[in-house]
Design goal:
This protein is of the alpha/beta class. The chain is about 45% helix and about 15% strand. A 5-stranded parallel sheet has the order 2-1-3-4-5, sandwiched between helices. Strands 7-10-13-6-14 form a 5-stranded parallel sheet. Strand 3, helix 3 and strand 4 form a beta-alpha-beta unit. The longest helix has 27 residues. The two termini are about 55 Å apart.
Length: about 450
């Protein structure tokens, strides 16, 4: 059914005619002969739209609109009258009517107007639902997909303890949000949350940031400074991109995590600290260990419990929920009355692969809000890469026999495509391909 419609008219023949016409066009129709009985009906029953005459005995159509605007503001009301005039139309719209039509009216036109009204109502309800859903704190894990639901469940089970956690996921997928969610649900959420990006600083500066330094430890060390490990005492230490930690610093970090004591650069004494360890990486840390780029003993410190963050492309309609969350925030910052996405824009967002994950989606919505001149983001407001995206393609064969390739070449191209789509994570690629990691490594070594 296209929707449930209430017809209000004191003319029995008009009620019967409209009911017949709309029923044939896919609507469920309920009729009432007075506005008072319609109000009583609506107090107990739900409909998607109301069609009412203006001139009726007792409560008229304009007064009915007034009452529904106060009690059921989400319900669209279409006003019909045989006495059409500009004054009547203005009165109806001021009373909250969604649309105004003069009798006689074609059945197709009425059905079209009703479909538009019902669609507008459903869109408004969805926007309100998304707005309410996105009022959660910024570091919550937004989403309604099965993938994000399983992630939230695992976070809830792991968070209360002190067990170290390794968070794995592609760039921009929300690994730090997972770490913050673990901290918020920990036994001491009031403690500090200290994030260290192991890839952001050169080795000497990173060592000083992590462990602190004494006065005179190096040229610019004019005073002593505590390191971030000590700052995290009583809270959570988040080691982001731990796979990028320089090999020379790994033994010192391992000892600090084992002993829960840190020796500042240039110092002789040690400073105790006690923090929960959460590490994150977008790399294949198992492969890094096998290749000698990461110490196995350090790897085992955070790798007690693994949490895999799903890529955005695996989260279905969460794309639209997150887009609405970012849209609301961007519109508020820009002072623009942008409230939602057009259908075409929503379809483009759902179709796109999001190699940059949630971070890329946030940038995309910021771009769109900055460009749009409408209350909805349109397709033309989206970045060109999203508008023109046609989906991934893997060349398997050609119509030209001279370009046909052996099966192992096709296999190698597909493996390369999967690796590219998961950001080089060989463990995840092997799982997608249905291979164990050793087989994948062998195929990569052998080549096409």
């Amino acid at each position: 059914m296209k929707g449930r419609v209430l017809i209000v008219d004191d003319d029995a023949e008009m009620c019967s005619l409209l009911e017949s016409q709309l029923t044939r066009r896919g609507f469920e129709v309920v009729t009432h002969r007075s506005a008072a009985s319609a109000v009583e009906f609506l107090a107990a029953e739900g409909v998607d739209a109301v069609v009412t005459d203006v001139r009726m005995r007792g409560l008229d159509g304009i007064q009915l609109c007034d009452q529904l605007r106060e009690n059921r503001p989400e319900l669209p009301v279409l006003v019909l009258t045989a006495f059409g005039s500009l004054d009547t139309a203005v009165a109806a719209i001021r009373a909250g009517a969604f649309d105004f039509l003069s009798k006689p009216i074609e059945a197709e036109e009425l059905a079209f107007r009703l479909e538009r009204a019902i669609q507008h109502r459903r869109l408004s309800e969805e926007v309100q639902r998304l707005r309410a859903r996105t009022q959660e704190p910024v570091d919550e894990l937004l989403g309604e997909s099965g993938a994000i639901g399983r992630l939230r469940e695992l976070v809830a089970r792991v968070a209360p303890g002190d067990t170290p956690v390794l968070v794995m996921g592609e760039t921009g997928s929300g690994k730090e949000l997972v770490a913050r969610a673990l901290h918020r649900r920990w036994r001491n959420p009031a403690g500090p949350f200290v994030a260290v990006n192991c890839a952001a600083l050169p080795e000497p500066l990173l060592e000083s940031e992590l462990f602190g330094h004494t006065r005179g430890a190096f040229t610019d060390a004019r005073s002593a400074r505590s390191g971030l490990l000590v700052h995290a005492n009583g809270g959570t230490l988040f080691l982001d991109e731990i796979s990028e930690l320089p090999l020379a610093l790994q033994p010192k970090l391992l000892r600090a995590l084992q002993e829960k004591r840190v020796r500042p650069v240039g110092g002789e004494g040690e400073v105790p600290f006690d923090a929960r360890i959460v590490a994150a990486t977008n790399r294949d840390l198992d492969a890094a260990v096998e290749e000698g780029r990461f110490r196995e003993d350090l790897f085992f410190r955070p790798d007690v419990i693994r949490i895999a963050v799903p890529p955005l492309r695996a989260r279905g309609n969460d794309v639209l929920l997150l887009a609405q969350h970012f849209l609301r925030a961007c519109a508020e910052r820009a002072g623009k009355p942008v409230v939602g996405l057009s259908r075409g824009a929503a379809e483009k967002l759902l179709h796109y692969a999001w190699p940059g994950n949630v971070r890329e989606l946030a940038n995309c919505i910021e771009h769109a809000v900055a460009l749009t001149d409408h209350e909805q983001v349109l397709v033309d407001d989206l970045p060109e890469r999203v508008r023109s995206y046609a989906g991934p393609h893997v060349l398997v064969a050609s119509d030209d026999p001279a370009e046909l390739v052996p099966l192992e070449v096709v296999e190698h191209r597909y493996i390369a495509r999967v690796l590219e789509s998961v950001g080089g994570n060989k463990t995840l690629a092997a799982r997608i391909l249905g291979l164990d990691r050793k087989t994948l490594y062998r195929k990569l070594r052998e080549g096409p």
